[in-house]
Amino acid sequence: MSARTTLPNRPGEGADLARCSLNTATVKRATLPEAVDAAARAGFGAVGLWRDRVQETGVQRAASIVADAGLRVSSLCRGGFLTAADDAGIASALDDNRRAIEESATLGTHELVFVVGGLPASGVPGAGPRTDAGPGDRDLVAARGRVADRIADLVPFAADHGVRIVLEALHPIFAADRAVISTLGQALDLAAPFHPGTVGVVVDTYHVWWDPALREGIARAGAEGRLAGYQVCDWSLPLADDALLSRGHVGDGYVDFPTITRWVADAGYRGDVETEIFNQSIWDAPFDETVARVGEGYARLVLPSLDTRDDG
Amino acid sequence: MSARTTLPNRPGEGADLARCSLNTATVKRATLPEAVDAAARAGFGAVGLWRDRVQETGVQRAASIVADAGLRVSSLCRGGFLTAADDAGIASALDDNRRAIEESATLGTHELVFVVGGLPASGVPGAGPRTDAGPGDRDLVAARGRVADRIADLVPFAADHGVRIVLEALHPIFAADRAVISTLGQALDLAAPFHPGTVGVVVDTYHVWWDPALREGIARAGAEGRLAGYQVCDWSLPLADDALLSRGHVGDGYVDFPTITRWVADAGYRGDVETEIFNQSIWDAPFDETVARVGEGYARLVLPSLDTRDDG
Any idea which UniProt keywords this protein has (chains A, B) (predicted)? Predict the structure, then answer.
């Protein structure tokens, strides 16, 4: 980890933002160079990248841009969408995920976040209610079984490339159309057969803040060496029309960040903390304003709890 | 249970609807007599009542209307909202819940469904984002502790009245503003210190269909003698603007009713199956049309799996 000093007159009022990472989805309109520049100027230590931004820049060039700015890539988003039941869908998913693994390796990030996909007939997120679904399409147990099978298919390729498949539990609001992994405990159960260096989990507060077993899940992830990432984002009400965009800056909603962050720190997590927010009004704001707000939320509600073990 | 014969030319095309119950929230515009009449004419065996409809009719008279129609009251909705942290809020919650327990006893239903409440500062559901919340307001762990305390306060009164406190896990989408119980397993953990005849749980498919531990939770509820109700309602997408109203008729969404119903039946549940749907377009439909559709969904996707143990 690079040495970073406290920087006055920056977001967070002099706080140490070395472990603060800007996920590029938070500044959706920014090109990769724009996002990296804004993060570096704000004193952040890392960026979390989405594949679309990386691909439009070129993977090699993206790696150089981040490195030249003195930043780390905290994670690449995303692989996944593994629930297809037909041969063509399975082959296509494996191909795409092998490319994502290669891109992670080129970018020099160990952590490739997987959103595993929803019920197969749900199709494109937001496509509306299904009218053609047979009973098999609602078989959540079978869809989860296929996710386990596809992870097993991909593990050797990921291990060969030094990349970790990082399973993300999504809020149950997305169980039908985006991810049949809904809890951290379930993600850990799916990861259990594999080496912790090859299959891990990420904790995203927006998705798991409500989970009564969250504390135990985070502790287990740490003990197993699988805690590969920590993403922060608040749960706001009322929900946006598109629930996917119904997220808020840290501190604007209902999530108890100091408590969850302490659990993450107590589990031994020492990596970057990504702020990843999908929200139209945040996307419409100037990049520097968003980045400043990200730094402020991190400094106020995350950083003090992240360091408890060092203080105690 | 009253003897009910198969009735041709009724919803479900001759299916036995003896265990099919109409929750009055599904026909929100109907008065209690109108809802009872529609359920009875459709051949249903029971109704699930909400307190507002019961109170506007009068509790004694409501009991007579249901009994005269030859129906059972499968449950009363609802008690709960137990998360207040201040003395006045606690006293008010206990008073209201004692009245609900008395109403249940008068109505002759053993099962009083509890929606336990959200984070205290969230206030009225749908009131929008909080602006005045202090850190304590986000303390989900403490809010859950208060729920446990209030249940303990109410148990002796419920036992004296022969009424069971039936804890309902709500979908995590409602964890902030309606219920800090988000999984069936959590509801069972809260119920565990008490006699199963006094504290039970209800399975509502809309709220728990996504839960990877659902099968185990249902089996545990049955083994412990706490499975006090089974409510059916589908998860539809896209979500309605008001997520609370984003529910569909059985068969219109993503829920795997045959599978979940089989788990419920295998757990030994032999009670009524309530259809409880909050949906503006269903509320706008003629009562008889809604009731017919409820009977059809029950007959097609619930009833065949409900009877597996008797067949096998």
Answer: Carbohydrate metabolism, Isomerase
ipTM over 0.85: yes
pLDDT band at B122 (very low <50, low <70, confident <90, very high): low
Q: Do A256 and B176 touch (CB under 8 A)?
A: no
CATH 3.20.20.150 fits B20-123+135-311, yes or no: yes
- Residue in A138, A147, A262 to test binding to B, most B beta-carbons within 10 Å: A138
> Could you say which residues from 95 to 134 on chain A have a Cβ atom under 8 Å away from some Cβ of chain B?
119, 122, 126, 128-130
Distance CA B116, CA B148 (A): 10
Q: Which residue on chain B is closest to A121 by alpha carbon?
A: B254
Indicate the SS3 state at residue A195: coil
Percentage of chain B lying above the pLDDT 70 cut: 89
Q: Residue with structure tokens 């150089």?
A: A64
Dihedral of CA A10/A12/A18/A20: which sign? negative
Strands B227-232 and B273-275: parallel
Record: contact A256-B129, CB cut-off 8 A: no
Distances (CA, A) of A271 to A38, A110, B259: 21, 12, 41
User: Does the pLDDT at position B88 exceed 90?
Assistant: yes
pLDDT at B311: 46
What is A23-123+135-278+287-311's CATH number, 3.40.50.300, 3.30.1330.30, 3.20.20.150, 3.90.320.10?
Answer: 3.20.20.150
